[in-house]
Design a protein that fits this description.
mainly beta; 14-stranded antiparallel beta sheet; two-stranded antiparallel ribbon; 7 helices; globular
Length: 449
């Protein structure tokens, strides 16, 4: 059942925001803005509520082993967007969303649910974020390609002034201090057939937030490594990458281990538009989590802030739908997805003259609260849609209490296929991993086939 309003009224309620927000200052944090830089007030129509501290979990609702029950179970959508009415909501839809709606009019739709501003963060993160807003030492360098170590511990740019600063907020979005373990799978659907391309046991952490952890390199932004457990032909392989706050000085350290060679080798090809074989070629390495790596092949423009439908609180997609239900022949089952109206930062990336990349332009819509939930579009040299993606978030309530965004989808319109990545449980670590256990040789040494 849908909340039945007149189309005119609903459109007015969801009107796009102005291109740029007011010129806020650090003094506005905790007042007109939240302590992490989002607009504290709701919108005039009441379809985006004011921020009130984050998710309020119903009594008795507790996280399970690697999963979180849906705190919004039983909610009904406000409206359903289909190919027939998509033009009425065009201001709040991305090009990729419009393409899916128009290309699959009989099977794809978007259910728009009530908006909940669920983001919640610990005091240490909020204090460091406020410090960064006031500090002249927390800044971008190398034309925005790098940031200083002085930003560590908080959102680097709660008052972003450039596309690069918004993207650094996205890359470094907060997901706890101690790191996390995954047991995740990647599926690619091609010509209606779903293929498991990879099941892995992964570990991730952001040393950027590990201020008090012994042995952490303060220059490191994040690192992720995986051990493949399926399919059988690749079981036993391992790989990982370390990214740095100054990738101009310290480029990505990527490595891989294969059971045939039985040795760890550096993998400089794990970058840019190299197809990621673990994801069946549907994703480039710089499309992991929608963006990953160095920003030097694009010019990044901060377009502004507006209201958009983005994936939010996707507990059902993560754990309420099994893979057979979730993966339809041409797209993810829309009954499993949840979309909400949120304010987003809009960043457009245009390929630089004289550099090589398979995509000529990209556009990102990034949530103002979490800097994690996002929608992504990309175009090829002819101006045709190349790919579109979405990163699905939840609030991982309990201990720790932080936004989580480890599942995402990518649609490749050039080959009429799509991938769904990050299916499975996530477990946050009680303690950070020992530095010696993050050594690639140690990780590879534990491989068995």
């Amino acid at each position: 059942m849908f909340f039945n309003r007149s189309v005119t009224g609903l459109l007015a309620a969801m009107s796009a925001a102005s291109a740029f927000a007011a010129p806020y200052t650090p003094a506005d944090l905790g007042n007109e803005l939240t302590r992490f830089g989002a607009i504290a007030a709701g919108n005039e129509a009441g379809t985006i509520p004011p921020y009130d501290g984050g998710l309020k979990v119903p009594a008795g609702l507790k996280p399970g082993d690697g999963q979180w029950p849906n705190p919004f179970e039983g909610e009904t959508p406000r409206v359903r967007i289909t190919a027939a009415n998509a033009d009425e909501y065009a201001e709040q839809l991305s090009s990729g969303q419009m393409k899916l709606l128009k290309q699959y009019p009989d099977t794809y739709y978007m259910d728009i649910y009530p908006t909940h501003r669920t983001a919640a963060f610990p005091e240490a993160f909020l204090a460091a974020t406020e410090r960064n807003a006031k500090s002249s030492e927390c800044k971008t360098i190398n034309d925005g390609l790098s940031i200083t170590e002085d930003c560590r511990g908080g959102l680097p740019f709660p008052l972003p002034e450039s596309g690069e600063q918004v993207m650094w907020n996205y890359i470094l979005n907060y997901q706890g201090v101690n790191g996390w373990d995954w047991n995740h799978s990647a599926y690619v659907v091609n010509q209606g057939h779903a293929t498991l391309t990879n099941t892995n046991q992964s570990t991730g952490e952001k040393p950027y937030y590990q201020i008090g952890v012994d042995g952490r390199d303060p220059a490191m932004a994040q690192r992720i490594w995986s051990r493949v457990v399926a399919p059988a032909r690749t079981a036993g392989q391992a790989s990982g990458y370390w990214d740095y706050l100054d990738p101009v000085k310290s480029s990505r350290y990527a490595w891989s281990y294969t059971t045939g060679q039985r040795r760890v080798r550096q993998a400089p090809e794990f970058n840019y538009d190299t197809p990621n074989s673990a994801f069946g070629g549907v994703a480039f390495y710089d499309e992991i989590f929608l963006f990953s790596g160095k920003m030097d092949r694009f010019d990044w423009k901060l377009v502004g802030k507006k209201e958009m439908f983005i994936p939010y609180s996707n507990y059902k997609l993560k754990w309420g739908c099994d893979m057979d239900t979730k993966l339809m022949p041409n797209h993810i089952n829309p009954d499993c997805e949840r979309w909400e109206l949120h304010r987003v930062w809009v960043v457009e990336a245009t390929r630089k003259e004289g550099v090589r990349h398979a995509q000529s332009k990209r556009r990102y819509y990034i949530d103002e609260d979490t800097f994690g939930a996002a929608v992504y579009d990309a175009w090829d040299d002819s101006g045709e849609m190349f790919r579109a993606g979405a990163q699905y978030n939840i609030q991982a309530y309990g201990i720790p209490n932080n936004p989580q965004q480890d599942a995402y989808s990518l649609y490749d319109f050039t080959r009429s296929q799509y991938g769904m990545f990050g299916n499975g449980p996530t477990r946050y670590r009680d303690k950070p991993i020992a530095e010696r256990e993050a050594n690639p040789q140690t990780i590879a040494g534990g491989q068995t086939r």
